[in-house]
Amino acid sequence: MIDVRLAVPEDLPGILRLQRENLPEALGAEEKAQQGFVSARHTLPILQQMHALAPSVVATSGGELAGYALMMPLECRELVPMLDPMFASLEKVLAGKRFYVMGQVCVAKPFRGQGVFDALYRGHAREYGAKYDCIATEIALSNTRSIRAHQRVGFVEVARQDDHAGHWSLVAWDFGAR
User: Which fold has domain 3-177?
Assistant: First the structure.
């Protein structure tokens, strides 16, 4: 059974561990292509600051972290400088919308293919859908598994961009369209 809830401070070290296990340098080329990867690297102090602004959503099973989906309100922009180009682009294409950024979503290997990804986003809609119009993020164009998964949930591409970190698809999910 998967339990989806808002993160508590005790979840943050587990989020960092799962993140480290899924960074590109921790994966082989075939695994990256088939299973996807995460791009940004956070620190505990940054996660703590993000959590203080708005808790992220986690999925657990039997006390084990099954996945996480990081909540990044616009106030988090300065915490992760590598994401500044994304924030700037999203502010332009989503002008007039109340949105926040999915800072990163990751499902632990033993829980993949069990609906955890979709459940994490349903958790975001449940927790934040009344306060925000939509959720947005960027996905590396080379991360085809993530692109397909986001499309399945209901995200649509709103822009593409290139920056110092790579080639990106900027996507948004309108909570009113769910």
Answer: Aminopeptidase (3.40.630)
Q: Where are the domains of the chain?
A: 3-177
Q: pTM of the full predicted structure?
A: 0.89
CA distances for 113 relative to 58, 74, 108, 149, angstroms: 16, 31, 10, 11
Query: Taking a C-beta distance cutoff of 8 angstroms, is the pair 24, 32 a contact?
Result: yes
Nearest CA-CA partner of 116 in 40, 4, 15: 4
- Report the length, in residues, of the chain: 178
Q: How far is CA 28 from CA 34, 37, 49, 120, 136, in A?
A: 10, 10, 32, 26, 28
The helix (run of H) or strand (run of E) holding residue 90 is helix 84-93
Q: What is the CA radius of gyration of the chain?
A: 15
* pLDDT for 83: 82
166 torsion bin: left (phi>0), alpha (psi -120 to 50), beta (else): left
Yes or no: say if 119 and 4 are a contact pair by the CB < 8 Å rule. Answer: yes
Reference 141, options 133, 150, 128, 132; nearest CA is 150
pLDDT digits (tens, 9 = 90+) for 27-82: 777 776 667 667 777 899 999 999 999 999 999 999 999 999 999 999 998 888 87
Q: What is the largest CA-CA distance in the chain?
A: 42
Tokens of 92: 């332009």
